[in-house]
């Protein structure tokens, strides 16, 4: 009798709450972002704060994975960037080599691994998102993350072009959603700037050959003080020769 009463109660709920519950369960698995936007920025660059604000605005859009990658090559100008990582500087230069130009500057945004624009120009960023999303392979592979206990499992679907036409690398970014910094010297002296979705570490998970696969990573390899989210991306090419973004996913860690 108790079981039947409980069942009837749940049934009466279903029309009001059932849809919400289903959406809450399904949405993470089916979220398919249309763009990865990488901002190369610096605390020592007076042109960067407007771009940093734009990344904060884009980070609110669930269809966009916006990342800040602070570089270190302006550190000699009087203020050492407290979030900078030489790997981000190397990544920005690798993009330039792949394009065949010398366009390395701040604030610079790379959209979906292929187009670069000035990071403080939101119109151009949105235009690049629209243009790159029309490319056949860009963000075409479903990618997901599952957080369970002290592990994260990354899953990548197979390529609809077949394994022979697909290759790439799978990376996880440790992310701090918002980091306020009081800048004491240099071009931004006296300013307090908040940096959004700051990448604090990069970890290669594995290689992808076009077939579906999954990888499990201990949370301790990703988490550190201040890290409260993770991003996984599947990118054509390699770390030294980065190509198109093929898929990505975002998950909070807390």
TrEMBL record:
A Pfam family of this chain: DUF1223
SUPFAM superfamilies in the record: Thioredoxin-like
Segments passing through the bilayer: none
Name used for this protein in its record: DUF1223 domain-containing protein
Source organism of the structure: Bradyrhizobium sediminis
Lineage: Bacteria, Pseudomonadati, Pseudomonadota, Alphaproteobacteria, Hyphomicrobiales
